[in-house]
Amino acid sequence: MKIVKKDKTYFINYNKDEDISILNEIIDSNLDIKKIAKDVYSLVLDKNTIIKEKAKEVIPSSTPKREEIQKQEPQITSTNIKSKILSLLNDKSISGADLIEGNFEKLLKKEDQLVFLDMLKKNEVAIFHLPKYKKGIYKANIFIPEVKEISIPIKKEEKKSSFTAASNIDVDEDVSSSFESNGYVIIKNQGDAMGFSEKYEGRIKSGEIIGQKSFDGNYYVIDSDNYSKVKTKILNLKFKDVFKIEDIKTKLNYPDDEIRVVLEILKEECLVIEKRKGNFLFV
Hints:
- By secondary structure, the protein is of the alpha+beta class.
- The chain has 3 domains: 2-45; 48-140, no CATH class; 172-282, Winged helix-like DNA-binding domain superfamily/Winged helix DNA-binding domain (Arc Repressor Mutant, subunit A).
- It contains 11 helices and 11 strands.
- It has a 3-stranded antiparallel β-sheet with strand order 7-9-8.
- A hairpin with a 2-residue loop joins strand 10 and strand 11 (279-282).
- The longest helix is centred in the last third of the chain and has 13 residues, at 256-268.
């Protein structure tokens, strides 16, 4: 293909039919032109274009015909819309700016926004407020597992090994007793997390229990009153340089696991960053 300039406008003339499919894919897109080597250039879709394309994949923008709507209506449920919203919230390629109140809603269709508001009321989506910022950032609540309906009943002896449904799952007694005794717990697998979610559903939705799934796959859970108390004491330490859990422990004498749980949630609130594994820094 060939690029031609007329006044201040550039035109692309294609040479082969194969070029048409490429041009169709990038039409109306913002592009970054980068020089890789001598006589070698690349056209790269900018981040905002990629995000919009991802949103289109999750939330179709085309208007279907009436016959198509009638065929699809039984499949379009609030559960499906919730899955789409949670997929967007958990998409690591979406920038923090697109998760801010007012910006995220622009990625949703009108009918999706009604479900989104309901999720906010039920605490299925949380809003984290940062110091000096008026608007918060939306985060998916970790206790909303992906549920699949099944018609086959789960036998009692199979409950702890089958996690295809969110109902009828027992929480591990060690997990439950540890939380009741200490006011916090680190849950090692999704099955126990789902069981915990079911047992403490009321307290989770009311905000009495908060938690976060970390990149290590563990679920860090704590009683909200306990979190507020420990959080305040940790922030008051005001370490100016990198610190470790051991540094906090010598000052406050809290157990390692309790400090780790609080730090994981502080990371989600953007009050602490983990520069390297086990090395933290106040924002």
